[in-house]
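Box 3.1 A note on notation
Throughout this textbook, protein chains are presented in two layers. The first layer is the amino acid sequence; the second is a C-alpha cell string describing backbone geometry. Keep the layers aligned when reading.
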Amino acid sequence: METLSYRLLDWVLTRFGRLSWARRDQIAHALYHLVYRVWGYRRELVRRHLRQAFPDKPETWLTTTEKAFYQLFADWMMELCFMHAHDWEAVRAQFEIKNLELFHQAHQRGQSVIVAMGHQFNWEWGGWIVRKDTQAPILCVYLPLSWGVGDKFFLRLRGRYGSEMLPLGKMGARLARMRSTTHTLILMADQSPSDLERAYWVPFLHRVTAWHGGLERSARLGGYRVLFVEIVQTERHRYEAYPTVLTDEPARLPEGQLTRLYVEALEASIRRAPHNWLWTHNRWKHSPPS
C-alpha cells in the first residue's frame, strides 16, 4: 500500500512540476484558498504566533502578513513539484547563494562548515544549491516524518545529488566519523527540541524559547566555521541566500553564546520579512523551567 501511495504521489508531483509557472501559480492560488480559507490549516496557531511576535502591530497588519505567509506556503508546494520534476540547473536559475567564498575559504584551509538555517522559503531549494555550488560533502540533519510516504519522498528529493541525510538521533555518531573529512553540515536549527534537559533557553520574538543543543555542541567539538544563512525572496519563485559568519572559533565562545548569536540573526531576518518563515510550526509548545 505504501509503495502504491508513493507512486501516486510521484506521478502527481511530476505532472504538476512539468506545468508552466503560470499554470502552477493558478494551482497555488487555489491551494491558498483551500488551505487558508476553507480548511483553515493552523490559522489560530499562526495568528497566536504573529500576535506574540509583533504585539504592537494592528490586526490589519497581522491579517495581511498571515495571508502573505499562506500564499507563500502554497507557492512552496508548487516549488517542491518543480524541484521534483526538474534538475538542479533549473532550480539554480531561481535560487542564488551570495558570498560563496565564505564556504570556499573554510574548505580550502581544511575547516568544515555548519550552515545554520531557519525555515525560510525556499529552504529546500537552498539545500540543493549548497550541494552543487560547493565541493565538500554535504550532511543534512533531518527529523524523520511520521508519514512514511512523505518521509521517503523528502529523503529521495533532498539526497538526489549526493547529500547524506542524517536522522537527528544518529547525528553525533556520524559526525564523529567525519571529523577528519572536510564537509558542510546543514542544520535547520529553528526546530523545537525534544531533549529539554539539554536545550538552551534564549529569548525569541518576545518569549523565552527552547533551542536544540546540537548546533552548539557540534560546532564546539568539530571546530566548524558557523554560517547563518538568510534566505530572501526577491520576486515570486526567486530567492537569494546570504551567508554571514557567526564564528570561526566556536570553542572560544562562552557556553550558549553561539545559540544566542544564531537566534538574534534569525529574529532580525524574520522582522525584515515576517511572512517568510514557517509560522505553522508549533515552535512555542514548551515553557521554560521554573
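The first strand starts at residue 95 and ends at 97. The CA atoms of residues 17 and 81 lie 4 Å apart.
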